[in-house]
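Sequence, structure tokens reproduced for reference:
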Amino acid sequence: MFNAPLLAVLLAVSMPALYFFQERSRDFWTGLSFAPVELSEGRYGGLVTSMLVHANWAHVLVNAVGALTFGAPVARLLRGSVGSVAFLALYICAGIFATLGFALVHWGSTDPLVGASGAVFGLIGAATRLLGGKGRLLPLTDGMVIKTSIAWMAVNVAVGLIGFAPGVEGARIAWEAHAFGFLFGILAIGPLGRVFGRTDERFASPDTLGDPHP
């Protein structure tokens, strides 16, 4: 945890930093939220800007921890300057896809949507294909990937229906956005990993006893 890639750390830190300013100018930041009805009105900016706004400190801290935890393995795969751009593109596009998916499910709704959780679930989806892969991407058909994905979605739906989560008192949990973000991440990391991923196997530790060979 103390060797997390700088990009993942900066992403996580940016969330409470932005919320610090949000607390001091709520009228401006509230205007950055998104409501599904905006799509029918031809307004699309909220698909991106809503990721910058959070409901309260608990909400933003949960997302920051999630970004650091699951962004770290993805950032290790997508290293270098080009990889960093791919990492940020994955994060932002997952957030847009999550918000768009939520809007399509709740077409015409005026309920505002805020938070980076859809984008964070994109990182969770991407990281799911790295768990147990020793730095390599696992195929979508891998048993661990399938089981972990089912577990994540079961918890996501349960939390969304029960409505119990830190920082969402009195608000509806957009579990549909989480699902769309997760789906985007778990699919997009495949081509991104193949094109921009970097692995270093010179010091990979095998399952047998002995020193690793360069």
Q: What stands out?
A: The chain has nine helices and no strands. The radius of gyration is 18 Å. The longest helix spans residues 80-105.
